[in-house]
Amino acid sequence: MELVSQHVKGIMEECKIRARDAGLRFDDETLEYIVTNRDLIELSPKVMIPTLYDYWVHDVKVLSGKGMYEAYPSNPFETVINTRPAISYYNDNNPDWLNVMIFYHVLAHIDFFQNNLFYKNTWDIDIAGQALADKRLIAQLRSEKGRWLDYVIEFARGMDNLVGFHRDLNRTLSQGRRHKFNRTDFYFDLFLQKIKSVPQHIYLKEISRYNQCAKDKQDFFIQVTGQYPEFDELFRKEKNQAAQPERDIMEYILRYSPFLRKEENEWMKSVIHIIRNTSLFFQPQIRTKTMNEGWASYWHENLFLKDDRICGHEADYAKINASVTAMPKVGLNPYALGMRLFEHIREMEDKGCYSFDYVRLNDEVLRKKFDRKKNTGRKFIFTVRENMDDFSFINTFLDQEFIDRHKLFVAGKRLNNQRMTWQYYIKSKKAHDYKKMIINSLYHPPDISIAEDKTKDGILYLDHRFENKPLKQAFIENTLIGIAFLWGGPVHLETSEPKTVAQPGAGYANFWDPSASGTSPEPEEIPIQWQRVRYVIKDRKLHRQEL
Predict the structure, then answer these.
(1) Which DSSP symbol is given to 537?
(2) How many distinct structural domains can be found in the chain?
């Protein structure tokens, strides 16, 4: 691995000028490295950060990657990571014209990293430098603690997808403008409505009395405390509770674990901090993959087609670009979906389609002719790039016009009884169904929090906020064993599981019937009855209890 030549660096600097002219914003300093495919195999398990801490799982992935490369050699063009300065890697056999296209793609990625608000907590972090310091600390601890270090890493990594990414991000975005918790809000929003559940006419009467007291400059709460003596005490408790930040599982264990409080186990806290911070750093990349790749593909196409350095390589570019941004009929290509959705958003905004006048139209012909000539689409997609993640991006803008334009559909699968093969067919062309399919494929870890009212007597009680997606059974035992080790006591996990499930083969009555002909329908969906269950890990043994 080595820095690119001065000639290639000059190409990158020229691409920066043109990218900035198009509206992209990024830091001046970047680092570009030339790597071989073998280098990429070794970097991939460390998420392309060469200074990331050593761990045996990384070595296993390297060996696996080398085996896969021998059987299926591949040639990735580039990889870019969100460091300060931004670091990007390029294959050692890319020609200059291809590097121009790739540089535009990389610069759009960097623009996304440095301007999307979901990355705000990473803007002031040099992950490469921080990872190097973490790597040295872990190497020192490994020499002192031996295999116990790897146990702690493995147990912490088992729950690193449960970090409170959105809570941490909200704390950062809310700094300096957080609404203060006051008596008036508590009285009208909580006390009257939820605690006392007063009738509506009394609630409205109290609002009128509050306005009159404010007009006459009188103390409204003198009568409140006289009527409700418990008000001040309830307000004090609620205010103290609101001041305490909600903690994810790793934060809670770091703060309250009896096991980690012991002097001989203090070193484990440093390891858990490293795992948690590393996970938090990469959370925005996982949650914006479609947007990020779509944004980069959108700009490499727009900028490279206008670049005179494409001359003579149009056919080569078309072939490579099609392999990256082709929209599959079955499956998902985040590059293609994201790029075409940005194009769709820009076109719709240019015409003024994101308006009430357009939404209220039911006539398809009038919708196609609708054009207010706003021409604000270019500015609008930069606003979208700044404020959204994959879920909000797809949920907001993937509409029926987009589905019809690109002839997209949700594919179903059924059995052909004559040929004994699976057949794929068009199940739905509705935007709602396609959007649901895409959203279900997005990264969405379970929402598991600490039930503090049940966490007592040395028991850590975890509560899974159920969203009609059961936990993966294969991971429950090992994850709870790791949490129990770091907690130093029993761990309870409350979750929901199906009470009744569809039987395998339901709907295939003719599967083994030689005389059967035609095509079997898809299995009928049987409504699932969910029930709450509790998993208890004690003395490294897992027990299941129905609630």
Answers:
(1) E
(2) 4
Residue ending a domain, among 438, 460, 489, is 438
- When pLDDT is averaged across residues 509-518 and rounded to a whole number, the result is 45
**405 vs 67: which has the higher pLDDT:** 405
Instruction: Give the chain's count of helices (H) and strands (E).
Output: 24, 11
How many angstroms separate the CA atoms of 78 and 102, rounded? 7
The model's confidence at residue 402, banded by pLDDT at 50, 70 and 90, is: very high
In a domain, 335, yes or no: yes
Strand partners, 133: none
pLDDT tens string 439-493: 999 998 999 999 988 998 889 999 999 988 899 988 999 999 999 999 999 999 9
Q: Which two tokens stand for residue 473?
A: 């059974």
Residue 207 belongs to domain spanning: 183-243
Gap between the Cα atoms of 302 and 307, Å rounded: 9
CB 508 within 8 A of CB 415: yes
Q: 160 in a domain, yes or no?
A: no
Per the CB < 8 A criterion, the answer to whether 102 and 19 are in contact is no
Mean pLDDT of 83-99: 87
Transcribe 242-308 into DSSP letters. Answer: HHSPP--HHHHHHHH-HHHHSGGGTHHHHHHHHHHHHHHHHHHHHHTHHHHHHHHHHHHHHHHHT-G
Q: Is 264 within the bounds of a domain? A: no
